[in-house]
Amino acid sequence: MPRSPVSRLRVDVLTIFPEMVEPYLRGSILGRGMEKKKLDLRAHNLRDWTHDAHHTVDDKPFGGGPGMVMKVAPFHEALVALKLRKKDGSKTIAAKRARVIVTSAKGKPFTQQEAMRLATYDRLVFLCGRYEGIDERVAAHLADEEYCIGPYVLTGGELPALVMADAVARLIPGVLGKGASLEAESHTEPGVLEYPQYTRPADYPVGKKTWRVPKELLSGDHAKIAAWRASLMRPGEHA
Predict the structure, then answer these.
(1) Which runs of consecutive H residues, i.e. helices, occur in the chain?
(2) For an engineered disulfide with 198, which of 80, 142, 155, 213 has Cβ 3.0 to 4.6 Å away?
(3) How much is the pLDDT for 34?
(4) CATH number at 9-179
(5) What pTM does this model have?
(6) Would you kindly state where each structural domain of the chain is located, as residue ranges?
């Protein structure tokens, strides 16, 4: 039987641009989730775990090639400081209820089902890459999960981290205003999209036309409304 979401979720985002991440984590529904003590969302500057005057987090790739690659050491030291990895790279006791996540083109697709699974862990840590990517030893020895959010390339891992953090955080009980908002959502069942939604006014004039709400929704007949909605829930495609 699937496990239920945890009652409180902590999310850590390791990035060289915490100023990009923090406003989103503290805004709107996620911010209210923090006020309710349902979420604990933190952004960390990866440069805090460097030891040279320039706080260098990247270096030239072995074998040549364009761009720079993010080094393994800052990620390792950050995870040690967060008490999720030991100095020898092995997991701590706290890591048993946590998942360390990186994004890459070769990662598995991130879906609603993956979000539901991650919501059963106490803590998620996102490792945000930049430049030409992250030293592969991070994915091989430090990360628990490797995800791709779509068949395209972004300038960094911050947006994927926020996408995944948002998708998981909203599943924690009490984060959304009404738990019913999670019922019959798109992708909760694989391949199913939510029915269309409408609100007032029922008739909206646009030039010589009128955009109308479907008559079934105005009928007051709950069985007829349910049947109409069910008829429009159709197979969807995962991003």
Answers:
(1) 18-25, 28-35, 72-81, 112-118, 136-141, 158-169, 222-232
(2) 213
(3) 97
(4) 3.40.1280.10
(5) 0.87
(6) 9-179, 194-232
